[in-house]
């Protein structure tokens, strides 16, 4: 069996999935969390069941040892059948990394160098890579970048209209994120429809805790709502998305917020959390249905922004064949899907309410038969996409 182990490493936790590349099924998965705290925790799902352990996990290296113990206990055995490669999710690849890349010491230095663009993510991703290299010294490690899919953006789509020389010096431009998901979902949409990817103009709406829209023409990303960082664009669980930059100037002058205070405000106390006091869309839609005014406002603002991007990307693409909803909110919330597309009949976008109400984990069509634009729900699978790209990189 050829398997690939996919690692998604954060600063105090990492998730993993072992994928059988012949069937593309996950045969084991798990989570190592509370790394560096007084008591850490591991959860592992393997062929012989689920195992959990609470133990001290001082760092990522210890976390990987705990993961190997869990594989030894609940299977499958990695000693008998080691993975052919390890695929690592890396958030920021800057403009340097436009495809999955086999990790070398130089690649690690470059990922480190990009940390000032993604201070929360890249150092944590790199810690995961370095710990995994100790656990699997004889296996190729591949970095798969969230930004890579958006390297096809034209300069006019990625340029911020500020002092060009200053921007160049500090690498200020739009990069876009969720690329692994946008790529996977747009390819699955073409496959589901039985049409060549090259012929399709698509909008993918990845709506999770983080959220982004992507305009995809013939399989190439031509615009996306996240920018230099994952803060720009749609209203998210706790992030503001688009905002007049002068608001920051105003708040620093009038409300005494320094850069850390602004960072905290925009990344953690904004979006649904800022407007409705809760970041989970399930809570917001429930409260809005019950007449809670702040939840109603939060939901309406979220939907207004989504509609704004759908219209914008229709124009950017010069037409539209498919809109696909994905990720936690996109896959599960019929209220959000219906609200985002309400009143777009003039653009040829018409939902079928009964199809939209179906709950399923399978790809499905939710547009009406007379809708010029096909609307789909397709569950994303970033781990599988990372595994596919890892396999391609080592081939
Ligand atoms: P992440 O960005 O963390 O990967 P996910 O894609 O898993 O997030 O999405 C998580 C979000 O999905 C949750 O915050 C929740 O708001 C939303 N969600 C999950 N199920 C539903 C549902 N049935 N209705 C509305 N929102 C949902």
TrEMBL record:
Residues annotated as catalytic: 146 (proton donor/acceptor)
GO MF term list:
acetate kinase activity; ATP binding; magnesium ion binding
Q: What is this protein called?
A: Acetate kinase
This protein's assembly is summarised as: Homodimer.
Q: How is the cofactor bound?
A: Mg(2+). Can also accept Mn(2+).
Keyword DNA-binding attached: no
Q: Which gene encodes it?
A: ackA
At the highest ranks, the source species' classification is: Bacteria, Bacillati, Actinomycetota, Actinomycetes, Micrococcales
Q: Where does substrate bind?
A: 89
Family membership: Belongs to the acetokinase family.
Cofactor dependence is on: Mg(2+); Mn(2+)
Which PANTHER family does the record associate with it? ACETATE KINASE (PTHR21060), ACETATE KINASE-RELATED (PTHR21060:SF15)
Highest taxon listed in the record's lineage: Bacteria
Which intervals of the chain form a coiled coil?
A: none
Cellular component GO terms held in the UniProt record: cytoplasm
Q: What is its main location?
A: cytoplasm
Tell me which species this is from: Leifsonia tongyongensis
């Amino acid at each position: 069996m050829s398997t690939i182990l996919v690692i998604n490493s954060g600063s105090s936790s990492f998730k993993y999935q072992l994928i059988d590349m012949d069937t593309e099924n996950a045969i084991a998965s798990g989570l190592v969390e509370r790394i560096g705290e007084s008591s850490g925790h591991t959860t592992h799902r393997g062929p012989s069941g689920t195992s959990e352990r609470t133990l001290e996990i001082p760092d990522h290296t210890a976390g990987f040892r705990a993961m190997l113990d869990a594989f030894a206990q609940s299977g499958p055995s990695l000693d008998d059948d080691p993975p052919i490669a390890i695929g690592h999710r890396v958030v920021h690849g800057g403009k340097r990394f436009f495809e999955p890349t086999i990790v070398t010491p130089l690649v690690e230095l470059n990922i480190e160098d990009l940390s000032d663009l993604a201070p929360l993510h890249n150092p944590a991703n790199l810690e995961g890579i370095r710990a995994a290299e100790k656990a699997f010294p004889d296996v190729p490690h591949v970095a798969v970048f969230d930004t890579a899919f958006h390297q096809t953006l034209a300069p006019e789509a990625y340029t911020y209209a500020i002092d060009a020389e200053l921007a160049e010096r500090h690498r200020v431009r739009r990069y876009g994120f969720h690329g692994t998901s946008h790529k996977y979902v747009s390819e699955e949409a073409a496959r589901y429809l039985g049409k060549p990817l090259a012929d399709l103009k698509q909008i993918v709406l990845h709506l999770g805790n983080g959220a982004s829209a992507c305009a995809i023409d013939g399989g190439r990303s031509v615009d996306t709502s996240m920018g230099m960082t994952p803060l720009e664009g749609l209203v998210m669980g706790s992030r503001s998305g688009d905002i007049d930059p002068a608001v920051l100037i105003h708040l620093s002058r009038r409300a005494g917020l320094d850069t850390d205070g602004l960072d905290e405000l925009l990344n953690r106390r904004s979006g649904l959390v800022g407007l409705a006091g809760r970041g989970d869309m399930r809570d917001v839609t429930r409260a809005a249905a019950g007449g809670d005014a702040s939840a109603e406002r939060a939901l309406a603002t979220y939907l207004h922004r989504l509609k704004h991007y759908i219209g914008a990307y229709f124009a950017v693409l010069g037409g539209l064949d498919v809109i696909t909803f994905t990720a936690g909110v996109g896959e599960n919330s019929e209220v959000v899907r219906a609200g985002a597309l309400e009143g777009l009949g003039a653009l040829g976008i018409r939902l079928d309410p009964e199809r939209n109400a179906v709950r399923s984990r399978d790809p499905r069509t939710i547009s009406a038969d007379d809708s010029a634009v096909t609307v789909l729900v397709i569950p994303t699978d970033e781990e599988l996409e990372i595994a596919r790209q890892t396999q391609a990189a080592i081939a």
